[in-house]
Each structure stands twice: as structure tokens, then as C-alpha cells.
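Before a colleague's protein record goes any further, I have to sign it off. What it holds is a sequence and that sequence's fold in C-alpha cell form. Would you go through it and say whether the fold makes sense for this chain? The record follows directly below this note.
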Amino acid sequence: MDEKIGLIAGSGQFPMLFSKTAVKKGFSVYTAAYINEADQALAQLTEKIQWLHLGQVKRLIKFFKQNDVNRAVMLGAVRKTRLFTDVKPDMKAISIIAGMRHTNDDAIMRAFADSLEKEGIKIEPSTFLLPELLATKGVWTNRKPSRSEKKDIAMGFSIARAIGRLDIGQSVVVGGGSILAVEAIDGTDATIERGGALGKGEAVLVKVCKPNQDFRFDVPSVGMKTIEIMSHSNVGAIAIEADRTVVFDRAEMIRAANEKNISIICVGPEVTIREFVTIHRGTEPGGGITEVGENSFLMNYTHIAHDCHVGKMVVLANNSTLAGHITIGDNAVVGGLAAIHQFVRIGDFAFVGGKSAVVKDVPPYVIAAGDRAVLRGLNRVGLKRYGFSDQALSALKKTYRILFRYGLTLNEAIERVQAEVEMVPEVETFIGFIKASSRGVTR
């Protein structure tokens, strides 16, 4: 194999590990490395290296194109505090930022990655070539978390996912049922130190993916340094997510944790099922499976009938009822006391209002509500919380207006969307859902 791969490198060992692995597997590595972040030793592990300041996007694209690189990975950290002191944005970077409504971490990284892909440079997932670095489920250490630590870990997962949804950070430190520290711009290490100082020996660290994590960048990571800082800060346990966390130096990390009596637990995908929830098993005519996706939340008295397929990170509020053979997409929300008719499909990121009666398919990205539900608009607040790009939001707004506000038949509207709207993946999903509907679409 003599294939080229680009590496956009920040700090830490991840870029070094990737480069060594890529070379062993026959790739030629072309590295765009950030000054004052990336390791100087990368120069010895790559075919060519270009040192850049943060913000020099045009120069980065030119470097890859000159070397015929059409695939790349984004690895390593960039200290967020440098974003205020050591950035030299070129016109390309300024145009990306100027076109954004929100400039939180994920929005900036996603816009940057999308900009590269428009230039013909596909950004691969962070674990491309290194899937073995992903965490596996189980208790890794000799010491299991204590009963009180388990309670704090459960609380920590709930809070960490909430701050992740707001794109604040990935980590929290919890002790004695209280939130001691929340990760902000100072990063995980500083969060451990702040929380440990308040916990006084009774604290746990929880680190999770953001609910809408883009695995091309900023995947949570832990390693030996994490254990060292926890030890110095008197934080006694760490909980991470299986298949969603990158682990460096795993054997050394476990050995050090055992020496320091620190517990490491890696939690697999879970579903929260509250009191008096009923879930019926699948039937042979319906395929034999009723399923609920990972990290979904089923509140009190929720009912899921036979042969339903509920996606990932779905919320079913109190007393919501699903009849048989219903499909609900990822990240959808069904309000309390809502009732969904048999064979109805609810799209990704849709929001069904409380006490609604839904008898037709609800497209992705929208709000539907009412007795015999009707569409109320695009789920703008939800989409913003999940980090949808301004480009995607703009395209979805145009698509929604054409489909449901111009008085056209759906076939006429779809043709007009395809002619007038930028066909970003979200719009393609929107249109594809409507085309596949057999019950008819809520309007």
C-alpha cells in the first residue's frame, strides 16, 4: 500500500501514535502541525510537515492539495485558552467564522471539517487506523467503585451529558452527591484539580461523549496523566464510556490505578427505565424484536408495544404511549401523555408535544403537537442544542418552508427543494424520510 493520509496535529501523544501506525500500515503521512502545540518529533515520522498557526486554514488546504492528499484526520489537543492569545486567522478562517451563528467548540470544529470536505479533503474519524484505543466495557481495576461512588457516578453521567448537550465540556467531578467541578475552557486536568480540592478524598471523575458527538474530532480521552492528576488531587474513581473514549497506555494506566487504589469503570450503553414502564416483546409477524437504543430515557408509566424500534438517545416522557410497530429515530423527544398510532414513524431530532395524538409520520427535525398532531415548525432550539451547523439550519429552514408552507403537493415541493436548496446531508435525510412514508406525513 502506498496511500496518502493527512494529519492535522495538535498536542499530546495521539498524533504520534497515529503517525507511527499509519507508516507501519503503508501510508505516507503528510502533517499540518500547529505551532506551540504539536510535538517536534512528528517531523521524523512523516513524509512532509507544514507548521501552522491556528487559523491558517488556507495554508493548510494548500499544503494538502499540493501533495494530493484527499483524506485526513484531526488529532491532538489545542489549549482553548490559546484561542484568545495565539491565533492568526486568514481570510478563509474569517469567512468560516463569519458564516456561523454560534461559535462554540463543536460548531467551529464541525464548520472547519465541513470546509475541508468541500475542498475535497475528507476528514476521517479520530480512531481511523487505531480502533484498538477505544475503551471496552467493565471494571478494569482490582478495586470496584464503592456504593457511594456508584451513586456519584450515576449522578455524574446525568450532569456530564447535560453539559455536553450545551457544549460546555466533557467532564464533571462529583463527591457526596454534589457537583464539585464542571469542565470549562480550562480542560479536564484543571477540572480534576478543582474538584479534588473540594472533595477532600471523596470524589469521582466522570468523562463522557457529548450527546451528538462528531467522532471526527474531540473524542474524550484518558491515560496515565489522568491517573497521576487524580492521585495528586485525591479523586478516587473514574468512569468513562465504552466504545466512545480513547485510552492511551491502558496497561500502564491500570497498573498505576491499582497501585494508587483508584477504581476505573467503563460503562456500556445503557437505557434509563423509570418506574412502571412497560415494554412488550416482539411478535413473529413483526420480526420478533422490540428494541430501545442506547442512552434513551423512559420516564414513569411509558408504554412501548410489540415490534417497536426506538432509536438512540430518545426521551419518552411520562405516560407516553407507543402502539405496535412504531419506529422512532435517534434523539427524538415524545412529550408526556402523547399517543402514537401503530406503524407511525418519528424522524431523528423530532419533538412531539405533550398530550398529542399522532396518526401520521412525523418528519425529522420538526415539532408536531395537538390532538391529531400538526406541524408547528422546525425544532430550532433542539437542533441548536445538538450543534447543527448554521449551513444545515439554513438549508433545513428553506426545506421546511417549501415543503409545508407554499401550498404545494409533496412531490412538487420535493422537486423544488432539490432545485433550490443546498442538498446537505440533513436535507437529504429530510427528503428521504418523506419519500419513504407509507402512512402519509403529518403536515
